[in-house]
Amino acid sequence: MATESEQNEAGQSNNEQPNHSSGNAAEVAAFAAGGGVAGAAASTLVGNMGLAVAGTAVSVGLLPIVAIGAIAGLAVYGVKQAFFSDDDAPVVQPTDTNQSSDGTP
């Protein structure tokens, strides 16, 4: 039986995941900043907003709308990465059912 220290065909140990970076930090920051700017623009365009619940109303200022815009920008980045990623590696590695446990066909 193979030990964990032995290498598989890809040159990685059996319990090691491939090293795929999750993205560029500058790109993530750009999407968050763009969402924040869009939130600020929406808040400025609409003006003072309010939230009315059960006969009570609360004013919603600029900061929560900017935060929601930044979160929406990060969500757009996540969708972009999910659909347009340059990573060719499959999410689940296929297994060859024709091989025995010692690696011989």
Kindly state the percentage of residues in helix.
40-55%
What is the CA–CA distance across the termini? 15 Å
| Total number of helices | 2
Instruction: State the low-pLDDT regions, or none.
Output: none
Percentage of residues in strands: 5-15%
The major β-sheet equals: 2 strands, antiparallel
Description:
With about 100 residues, the chain is mostly helical. The chain has a domain at about 25-85. It is about 45% helix and about 10% strand. The protein is built from 2 helices and 2 strands; from the N terminus they run αββα. The chain has helices spanning about 25-45, 60-85; strands at about 50-55, 55-60. Strands 1-2 form a two-stranded antiparallel sheet. Strand 1 (about 50-55) and strand 2 form a beta hairpin. The longest helix is centred in the last third of the chain and has 23 residues, at about 60-85. The two termini are about 15 Å apart. The relative contact order is 0.16.
State the main characteristics.
105 residues, mainly alpha
Q: How would you summarize the topology of this molecule?
A:
Layout: H1 25-46, E1 49-53, E2 56-60, H2 62-84
Antiparallel strand pairs: 1-2
TL;DR of this structure?
Helix content is 43%, strand content 10%. With 105 residues, it is mainly alpha-helical. Strands 1-2 form a two-stranded antiparallel sheet.
